[in-house]
Design a protein that fits this description.
- The chain has 316 residues and is of the alpha+beta class.
- The chain has 10 helices and 9 strands.
- The chain has 3 domains: 61 residues, no CATH class; 183 residues, paralog of FGE (formylglycine-generating enzyme), CATH 3.90.1580; 44 residues.
- The protein has a 4-stranded mixed beta sheet, with no helix packed on it.
- Helix 9 runs antiparallel to helix 10.
- The radius of gyration is 20 Å and the shape is globular.
């Protein structure tokens, strides 16, 4: 019964997408592939190269290359569409949860997948999971703020246990909890799968889950805990990260997508057409990214009109 319910839900998602695509094409609109690429591009936040260091601990979260990160966690609707499109994906222990998702909950964060399963959806989008350091860079910003929204805790800005809702909410519900660049739900709603970089170590890196969820109390992105060693006070860095087995599943563990900006934009050029509607949407994306994206967009401007249009918007 759970599998049948999931299949019906998957069918509704795909049917809606197919009908929307047909209506667009009937009116001379973009193909389904282009519409998907543009819709994804409109959800991405531009993260320029920047320095991020958490105190004097040496935990460096800097990024040397620009990133594009999804402002929202992957939703149930996206996950169900992935299950329907990927042969064999809708099998295994995850279906006992995914098969019980009710109609009308498509905007809630998708959860209960392993890290490998999350990576499969990301690969299909030409993206990947964030690394632990990238997640902190995006959450704390170049000012290394202990909260995504600023330097102080706040009430009613994240779906954590403190609110007593005991369940997920639609992604992007809390405007006050977003970063200045517009990335939502980094604290609360669902924890997020990340990969952990282990420089100089050849063994498989451990997986981790970052941020809080509706099942955890609101805590800062990082803080410094004191301990006594040999008669002196030593302060150690604690970050909002849990080391977990990559095969782990939890009803409050999901993920979001990220990509190298230069590589991703080069792929978008190959997908998007040259209509006036596409130009308007590309310019709107550029206007939202603004000045931080101009240098990279100028570097790539010779590779396609879509990037030129995004640059036009950024330079407004």
């Amino acid at each position: 019964m759970a599998l049948e319910n999931a299949a019906r839900s998957d069918g509704r998602v795909l049917l809606a997408a197919a009908l929307f695509s047909l209506s667009l094409q009937a009116c001379g609109g973009p193909s389904a592939e282009e519409e998907h690429a543009l819709a994804r591009l409109e959800r991405l936040v531009f993260v320029p190269p920047g320095v991020c260091s958490l105190g004097t601990t040496g935990f460096d979260c800097s990024n040397s290359e620009a990133l594009l990160v999804d402002r929202y966690e992957v939703t149930r609707g996206e996950w169900l569409a992935h299950l329907a499109a990927a042969p064999g994906a809708a099998k295994g222990p995850g279906m006992r949860v995914w098969g019980r998702w009710q109609e009308g909950t498509e905007t809630l964060p998708a959860t209960f997948m392993t890290q490998e399963e999350a990576s499969e959806l990301a690969d299909g989008e030409g993206m990947r999971l964030l690394t632990q350091r990238e997640w902190m860079r995006i959450s704390a910003g170049t000012r290394a703020q202990p909260w995504p929204w600023g330097t102080s805790p706040a009430r009613s800005v994240a779906n954590t246990l403190d609110l007593g809702l005991h369940g997920p909410l639609g992604v992007g519900t809390f405007e006050g909890g977003a970063t200045p660049s517009g990335v939502y739900d980094l604290i609360g709603n669902a924890r997020e799968w990340v990969t952990v970089e282990q420089l100089g170590v050849s063994q498989v890196s451990p997986a981790a889950a970052m941020g809080g969820s509706w099942l955890s109390h609101q805590e800062p992105l990082f803080d410094f805990k004191s301990a006594t060693q040999a008669g002196s006070q030593v302060f150690g860095l604690r970050i909002a990260s849990l080391e977990v087995d990559a095969r782990h599943r939890s009803i409050d563990l999901g993920f979001r997508l990220v990509a190298n900006a230069k590589e991703y934009l080069r792929r978008v050029v190959q997908t998007c057409g040259l209509s006036q509607a596409t130009r308007a949407r590309a310019r709107a994306v550029g206007a939202r990214w603004g000045q931080p994206a101009i240098e990279l967009l100028r570097e790539l401007s010779g590779e396609g009109e879509v990037i030129v249009w995004i640059l036009e918007g950024a330079e407004q």
